[in-house]
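Hey, can you fold this one?
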Amino acid sequence: MRILRKYTNRRLYDTSRSCYVTLEDVKQLVLSGEQFQVQDSKTGNDLTRNILLQIISEQEAEGHGTLLTNQVLQQLIRFYGDSMQGMMSQYLEQSIATFLEHQDRIREQMQTMMGAANPLTMMNRFADQNMAVWSMFAPQSSEDARSGEDGSAASGGNDEPEAGAAAEKAADGAAPKE
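Sure. Predicted structure:
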């Protein structure tokens, strides 16, 4: 475990790297999943929680999108001293752990929901549905039209009018003139 010492001048000292660190450095430790503890340099008391709360407070103040709205904070304050305080702590820990376990699936669901609410996506869906309906009412399918254009139809359909016209010409030529 990495030990950080907090001095009276409010600076944090990383004992494993022998250098001073900032709250941003501590945040990076959290993001990388590295285990650490912040200790008071004089008393040795564990100050990790205080430092983590300070990092959260700074994140909330910087406007990175608030996780802890005023309503959530008020509800949390109401749980302090309540008989359910211990249960609430466990519930929050388990809820966040479950959320992290299912994070990818939750992301996919959110993207699907956001995509459904996107007007452009909705317009594309409507256009696709309309095209499907119009194609049901079209007199011939697009494959029939293409086979008639290049003259590659095997039989029936498009060859009949041409055969009928040729037969009429032949009949006209063979018929006796009056």
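Residues 1-67 form one domain. Let me know if you want another pass with a different chain boundary.
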